[in-house]
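Q: Fold this one first, please.
A: Sequence and structure below.
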Amino acid sequence: MKIHIKSLDGIDVAAREFLDAVEGRKVIAFYGEMGVGKTTFINALSRQLGVTDDAVNSPSFSIVNEYETASGDIVYHFDLYRLDSIDEALAIGIEDYFYSGRLCLIEWPERIEPLLPDDALIVLFTLLDDGSRQLTFKT
């Protein structure tokens, strides 16, 4: 499946479409170059999920952030860019997060690919020549 995001004006609609398409998936791995918009899209996903925090930011300095939705569900947002090794991921208990039954949104998953659950949804985030973004994934 592909979702095309022409501009920031359409990001919330794209986030809703994405969530409808992947309903029930708990571990979602976002691949894409730096600056392609992964964090911005995760912010839009969080809004659509009813995250009550004022702002969702890249957790670059803490590796994982926890957000609470209006209904009390927990969403985990990982930015693994600064992760040095799989051992470091294991030390923070990353597998416990993945198998918690809660939604896990992961940036830079290539750093821990061997640890991703078999049913993780792989999403490729691409910047197109016209400045729009495309998400490609299989449900």
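Q: Good. Now the second chain.
A: Here it is, same layout.
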Amino acid sequence: MRKVVLGLGISLDGYIARKNGAVDWLSMDWDYDWMAFFKTIDTVVMGRRSWDKYLEMSPGEDKNPYSGMDTYVFSRTLEESGVDGVEVVDGDIGEFVRGLKESDGKKIWLSGGGELAAAFLEQDLVDELYLGVTPILLGSGIPLFPEFNREIPLRLVENNTCHNKAKDNAMLELTYEVVHD
């Protein structure tokens, strides 16, 4: 069975974006092999606000940013993504994701956002958390984990330090496994 990986960059105080959705504080300048993560996945799922933010950050782009991967946007209001190869899902999240997990393929990346992550966690759909903890305190913003109604035990699988020599700083890369009942 395929695994769902919640993978995001977060601030040290637990935010995935500023209040306006901006992620300008995230950087790709770490000594980290980003492609190693992408080689483990072949499906991307995200919420509508994350998709809207991508479209806002890439005006005029009409191609799937995750070319070669099955890409799904969960939305109750969006009828079409506006981009070939990106499918909008308006059905039962649990049923849809369980179907993906039972199909053949690599891992499934839950790339955002916070409310969708909470819905996935509530329904016990997440198998791993892959977090890049960035050395910044935003003070406010969109939290990685909006309130949800259950306790979820995790097991640390791996931790790494990724350096940014230009800023003389480091980011923590944390991988947790969800301990399913």
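Q: Anything worth noting on the second one?
A: The chain has a mean pLDDT of 87.
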